[in-house]
Design brief:
The protein has nine helices and 16 strands. By secondary structure, the protein is of the alpha+beta class. A hairpin with a 4-residue loop joins strand 14 and strand 15. It binds FE2/S2 (inorganic) cluster and fe (ii) ion. FE2/S2 (inorganic) cluster binds next to loops.
Length: about 350
Amino acid sequence: MDNNKLIHPKFYFGNSTQQLEFDKVFSKNWLFAGMLSDFLENNSFITLDILDYPIVIQNFNGELRAFQNICPHRFNRIQTKTKGIDFFICGYHNWSFDKEGNVKSIPKKSSFNESHQDFNCLKVKPLRIEIVGKFVFVSLDQNSESIKEYLGVFHDKLLEVSLAIDYNFYFEDDLQNINWKLIVENVVEAYHCPAIHQNTLYNMGFCRKSEVNNDYYNGHSVADYPKSDKVDEGNKLLKYLDNIEIKHDTFRHYFIFPNLLISSTEGTSIYVGNILPVNSEKSILRKRFYSPKFRDNFIPKEAIHKAFLEMVKTSINQILEEDKVILEQIQKNMPFVENTYFLGKEESRINSFHEKYLELI
Ligand code: FES
Ligand SMILES: [Fe+2]
């Protein structure tokens, strides 16, 4: 293995890589920022920080707009919560802004000597925004390629995943003492499953066979992890799940470079993970869990489906916790690691991630 093609351990800790990654990775590529279901109502918004860069996406009477979340007056954050429904008003001196980011109203405006023209140059910085199916992306780069070019074949794959997704039933931000790249590398291989997820994924019958249907483009990747034939199909009560819109008999996992993770367990539940790097040694894992969409007009029995989703929530959170324990330990080891040497066949998606990262850095 040519280890020049692998990311050196020094990129996983300390202060030196943060600015470099912001400039070369996060401010140059399209970034997943939310799901359409986050913005159902007028004035609903989501905020996210990428290595301290504050972003807000807000619904303005049905139109989604993205901005740098900084007020042009005295530089306060405009939306301060993670998500919610509120006017686009800065809480420091109550200036409000329209959907273009222009100043809409200013308390005691006459106390400023400036003319109307001067206020016109003050603007909340708009960011590019694109919607692919139910996925919302932003770009900090006004000149970057289109989202379609950026995603390539993964554009249509996201449209297909969107058809499988119904409503969100769980949202949580989890602060983890882990470099964002370690989180990516962990989820794009199932090689660790028999050891780490013995009582969860492995017991459910996944990760005993090799991954199939791999596809790669521009750092993005997907793979299917088939279910073992030896596993008992289990509870007949869950037979109603045969009515979901998109069914497959694998654990399917997508990675959209640099920080979006999507997994679907046989189509019956969908997890959307968004890694928000805080610094080189901390990340927020923003977790969203979705109910599957049912075909035709099938309506599941409410109590049974609710109990199923509760089980999904416990199970995904347990898997994520199992990963977090290992990765926080690995993060502590990184300053003492001298090089990365080998990746096996079951780690080929890590390889494609490293190649894309090194191409940018
Ligand atoms: S800083 Fe936002 S209104 Fe003053
Ligand atoms: Fe895992």
